[in-house]
Each structure stands twice: as C-alpha cells, then as structure tokens.
Amino acid sequence: MDRSIADELLFEERVIRPLPQFVVEANLKPAQVAELREAATDDPLWYWEDAADELEWFRKWDTVLDEDNAPFYRWFAGARCNIVHNALERHTLTVNKNKLALIWEGEPGDTRKYTYFELNREVNRFANALRGLGVGKGDRVVIYMPPLPETVFAMLASAKIGAVHSMVFAGFSAKALRGRIADSDAKVVITADGFYRNGRVVRLKDTVDRALFDADSVESVVVVRRTGQEVDISSGRDFWYEELVRRERTQASTEVMDASDPLFVLYTAGTTGKPKGIVHAHGGYMVGVNRTFRDVFDIKPTDIFWCAADTGWITGHTAAIYGPLLAGTTAVLYEGHPNYPQPDRLWSIVERYGVSILYTPPTTIRMLMRHGTQYPESHNLTSLRLLGTVGETISPVTWDWFHKHVGGNACPVLDTWWQTETGMFMISPLPVAALKPGSVARPLPGVEAEVVDRQGQPVPPGKTGFLVITKPWPAMMVAIEDDPDAYRSYWDRVPGAYFAGDAARKDEDGYIWIQGRADDVLIIAGHRIGTAELEGAFVSHKAVVEVAIIGIADRIKGEAAKAFVVLGDDYDPTDELIEELKEHVRGELGPVAVVKAIEFRESLPKTSCGKLLRRVLKSEELGVAPEDDGDPDDCWSA
Ligand code: WTA
To answer: Residue 57: what are its φ and ψ, rounded to 5°?
Structure first.
C-alpha cells in the first residue's frame, strides 16, 4: 500500500462532529443508532430478520440463518423471492411508479431518463427476449458493457428470469473476457457495438468476436447499438438488441427463486493467477444491501443518488444499481470519463441533475484535485448533502479537499469499507457519526469485525493486525464458482471468522483504519489486481523467465505495479523491451493492468523452499529493513 498514505494515517487523527441540522434531519438519530447497534450485537438474527421484513417475499423463510453446513451459510433458508420484484416491480404499485428510477448521461452529452414504470417495461421486454433466446433459470449471461441504460435492463432482465448475470468490466481484454466466459459456461453474451470514453470510440463488439473465437458454450450475442459504427454480425448467433425487443410484450412473469439461488457472479482478483467468480444470491444480498444502503446514505424520497463507479465492479452492482433501486431512489449513471471534455464533468452532472449524494472512489477525487479548485468552484454544488468514498484508503488531504471544495464543509464524507465478497457495506460511518478523516469508522449495526493477530487474538488498540468479520452477514457471497476450497479458505485462517485480506488497526474509540491489503493483491486506481495475474501475463512473453510484482506508491492511482524481471539469455534489457513488455501485459489483461515500472534483475529473492520474497523487493524499494514477520517460509499470504 501507499506508504505515504499509511504514514499520514498513523499521524493524523481529527474528529469532525456532525452538523446539528444534519442530526435533526437524519432518518436515524444518534440515540437510535446506539440502540440499534446494541440490539443487533445482542441478537444479530433478530436485526437481519427485521431487515428482511422490510422487503416483499413470495414465501417467508423457515430459518433466518441455517448454519448446518458452515461456512456455507444459508440465509433465509426456505424463503422464495426475486430481487427484481423488490428493486423494481413493487415500486410500480406505489407512489414511486412515476418517479425517475434512472437518469443516464452519455459521454457526448446525450441523456435518457426512465421512471420506475418505464424501467420495468424495458426490463420486461428484454426478459421476454432473453427467454426467446432460450435463456432460463440458472443460465449464465455475460454482460460486457459500459454503464448504459441497457446494462441495467440486461442485469435486471436476467435476474428476473432466474438467469445469473456475470458483468465483465468493459476495460478488460478479449483474453480476460474469454476466461470469464469459459469459467461460467455462459450461454449468452450481451454487449454494445462500442462506447465513448475520453472522446474516443472504444470498439467492444470486435473484442467480443475475438473472445468468442472457438468458445462453445455461447449460443447468442445481443448487441446494443450505441455508437453506430460498423460491426461484424455473425448470422444466427448475433442479434441487434433493438430488433430483438421491438415486438416483445411489456409484461413478463418473474421467476420465483429460492433465497439462496444465485443472482450474479462477479470475478475478482485473488492471490492465485486466476480470478475468482464470487457468487451472490437473491435473498441475502437484497436484504443486506437494502438495509445498509438506506442507513449509510440516509435515503430520503427527494434524493438523487450518484455512484460514479463503473457498473463492471461490485460498487457498480450494489451502489449504482441494486442499492438505489431497492431503496426506490433516483440513480444517476454516466457512461464516460470524469475529465471529458474537461475536468469539471462530475461537478457539471451534480449541478444539472441536482445530485444530493455522490459516491466515488478516492482515485477519481485525486485525479480531479490535480486540476485545481476552479472546476468545482465554477458549479453550484449546493444540492449535495452527503459524500461517500469506497475501494481504497482516502488520505486526509484528499478527504479535506472533497469535504471542503465539493461538499462546502457541510456534507459528511462516508468512507465505506467492503468487498466483492461481502456484497454490502460492512464498515462505515453513519451520517450522524463523528468522522475521523482516513478512518472507515465502525462496523455497521449487525456486522461484527475485529482486528486480530495470526493466532486470531484481538490486537490492542493502535496495533496493526488482520481484519476479520466474526459473524456471518446476509449479503455474503454464497460460493466461488466451481471452487469450494477457495470459498472455504476465507474461513480457514482464523477459526470461525472471515478473513478479509486487509491489514488494519483499531483506535481507542473502536474506529478502524484500513492499512491496505495483507496479501498479494494490489489496489490500482481502486481496482483489485492480483500480483499473480500480472506475473502470469509477464511470463507469457517469450523474453521473460521469471518475474515478481510489487505495489509502489502512485500519486493518482494510489498504488501502481512495479515488475522485477529476469530475462532469458537471448534478450537484452533495453528501453524498447520495457515498452514491449508493458504493451504485452496490457494486451493480455486490458487497460486496467497498468505497469508503472520495470526493473531487470539477474535473479529474484526466494525462501529456501523457493517461494518468491516479494516483501524483500518491497523493502528494497522503500529503502527500509524487511519486516520481520517470523518464519519466512510461512505462507500466510500465499
Ligand atoms: C479495499 C470494493 C480502504 C480493501 C468495494 C478491500 C478499502 C478491497 C475500502 C475490496 C475503504 C475497499 N478503505 N480500503 N473504504 N473499501 N477497500 O472487492 O483492500 O473491489 O479488501 O470491493 O478494497 O475490493 P473490491
């Protein structure tokens, strides 16, 4: 992790109290929060059952939590539901019917808006079209799209018919897409001809064609016309979205799902070279997300909520789509780059739609900060009442800038800690809490977290340890696609607890300070990238014999990758080769895989049993002595 950020976190500790007017208006007052927290700690199952009762079910549960097959916990066992009923259909029968569900803006400036009624109609038409293509319960549907209205239709339509969506970030390469398609045996791929990003057209359909070369499971490809560019259409396999839905009915039946039936798969980096397909289920996910999203963001009927993260990541699933729709609020979705056409695009969107809650990764704030305060200052941002961040530690300097220049010193900044695996927000301040810039505050009511040592014992305040979650929570992943051992491994490290993979410390007030990953995963610009995955991309180049990747500090991206490469005998360590290797890795994994630096070495440091000692390289890089973490052969992070 970014060393300078870590140092800053260790030394700065300020408390910012909520403004009195905020407390008066908040849905949950401080006394209620305290009461809820206590009640949830005493009886978590009561707390989550109460959260489940806020939603509509086709059949209620026999048991709130079935622990018989732990750690394969089953929440709301015996219940029947469908998240789409709660995120969409039920709103069309209330005052929300004609409320805007979605405000979408394309990068060139085009906009589309949908009320709950209209969104439901679009989802139904697409659900019927998917059924027409033979897609049904349990089938995997890969969605390789940027944030477009059709991305939302596609996700909800597949969930509605009981299919399982697997979103792939549109910045991933054909190879990465291919791997994800193969791993989940997808029947259908939904994509667009292309999209706009930073003033350029990104050609998506071509990438899909390359990814599908020889892929047997895929029967159909649905193509949304976004840019209008020429694309190859393979007859019998490829269908234009518009043609497919044109004649479909605007009503569709909703598949009745078991609460633990899968809703989506989302791949994320782990410590092996292969990304893990994290599986979430209808029942628990909707309960956990609905309760935590509403509480953290203090959702009011008049809110306009904007999560500026891409729909291809968990943040986009939970905070851009399912959370806001479950809450019946209005979600803003933006296709393009925050700097296009100039670095005030975010502020311009906030001003034009009257966004009241803005949620974004710190990396975006750092990028915009660099351009100076004149950009936020040239817009009326007074509609904002809450700000949120996610995905990586926010340094106090970035926090202050966001708080002051975007929030006008009047909006709490809610730093939310959670993961693809957790599905929902886990550790975060609530709007009425005292804030400490750089800290994610305390676990949300119903969530129990601890900072422990290697033996699983809580460490004293101020000491760094490993972050664990000590009680199951409803939106937890239910499986890892085809890999029960990988799922179990989260629960093996500390008996009875979920090992998050983060280093953290707790202060005297019980506030948690995330110190970065404790395993071989990098967080580059808020995105999780496994060092093993990057190393795999390097060694697929003929010149590379061996490689080790470490994270180094980057002012904008927070963390960036540095590679130590051992070359084959026939290759010379030239600048051209450095560029070629960077390009090669980008081609293998896509633009997300940014390698900042490459250093050639004769050999790499290893333990006696041949395990790479990345931490020795890291210490050399930082110019400090290697941390003594006991037995060097211990594979804690392997
Ligand atoms: C990191 C993103 C510090 C952490 C929702 C975690 C954070 C990983 C924060 C999960 C935060 C997430 N402060 N670090 N507020 N939120 N992280 O699965 O290392 O893409 O384990 O989920 O991001 O990344 P993922």
So the answer is: -125, 150
Q: Which of 311, 392, 436, 444 to mutate to test the pocket of ligand 1 (most atoms within 8 A of CB)?
A: 392
Per DSSP bridges, beta strands 100-105 and 80-81 are: unpaired
Q: pLDDT tens digits for 518-562?
A: 999 999 998 999 999 999 999 999 999 999 999 999 999 999 999
Q: From ligand 1's centre to the CA of 510, what distance in Å?
A: 19
Across the range 211-227, mean pLDDT stands at: 93
Same domain, yes or no: 184 and 272: yes
Q: How far is the CA of 573 from the centre of ligand 1 (A)?
A: 36
If one counts the domains in the chain, the total is 2
Q: What is the pTM of this model?
A: 0.94
At residue 3 the predicted structure's pLDDT band, cuts being 50, 70 and 90, is very low
Mutate to test the pocket of ligand 1, among 307, 389, 390 (most ligand atoms within 8 A of CB): 390
Q: Using a 6 Å cutoff on CB, does residue 310 contact ligand 1?
A: no
Task: Answer yes or no: is pLDDT of 628 > 60.
Answer: no
The number of the ligand 1 atom at minimal distance from the alpha carbon of 313 is 20
Note the pLDDT of residue 222: 98
What does 182-238 look like in DSSP terms, one character per residue? Answer: HHHT-SEEEEESEEEETTEEEEHHHHHHHHHTT-SS--EEEEE-SS-------TTTE
Give yes or no: residues 533 and 496 share one domain. no
What is the C-alpha separation between 307 and 574, in angstroms, rounded?
43
Cα(157)–Cα(263) distance, integer angstroms: 11
User: What percent of the chain stands above pLDDT 70?
Assistant: 96
Would the CA dihedral through 204, 206, 211, 216 be positive or negative? positive
Among the atoms of ligand 1, which is closest to the Cα of residue 517? 19
Tell me the CATH number at 548: 3.30.300.30
| Residue 22 lies in domain | 17-337+416-505
Q: What separation in Å is there between the alpha carbon of 392 and the centre of ligand 1?
A: 5
